[in-house]
Amino acid sequence: DAGVIQSPRHEVTEMGQEVTLRCKPISGHDYLFWYRQTMMRGLELLIYFNNNVPIDDSGMPEDRFSAKMPNASFSTLKIQPSEPRDSAVYFCASSHSGNSYEQYFGPGTRLTVT
Amino acid sequence: SQKIEQNSEALNIQEGKTATLTCNYTNYSPAYLQWYRQDPGRGPVFLLLIRENEKEKRKERLKVTFDTTLKQSLFHITASQPADSATYLCALLPNSGYSTLTFGKGTMLLVSP
Q: What is the pLDDT of residues A73-84, one digit of tens each?
């Protein structure tokens, strides 16, 4: 199994631009999570999906952030417009409901907004 | 408010010694507590899970304890090796059906040869 796949691995963009992060979860997993990690705040949950349906997006910082999961094998996190304070590492993770909540993380996307 | 606290200072130990990392929490009644390892530039990797009714769990050189009275978990690595150097995160799952993990900020462990 290839594990959770994220792209791009690094993204540098200018303030005001749209950024789209992509995630392919592990096949057969029914939960997908988007996290953001910074030194100051640690690992924060942004949103999670169960069977492709968004369940809790209370961690999404603002309306500039949106996430979709059109099918079981693909999800996107979009920031529009991006701001310098969005600079962080964004992780996607997936899990299976029958697996004691163990989460499998992707390698992350390091986003830098200048 | 709910808090998870891990020592923000790095733990430096010598190879062969036992490393002990601490995770304290307040205003939680966790059903599960998990430990993850994170290497620089990589995502966290699941190591161990312990349930609220379990006192101790072991896996090879790893041992986790869970004291719901003290609201504390200890994570031990015995016979530590330089390859164990990483950041270790604890994560709690609240005791309210399937919900989401809340992570501590992690403690960096440095094992010197």
A: 999 999 999 999
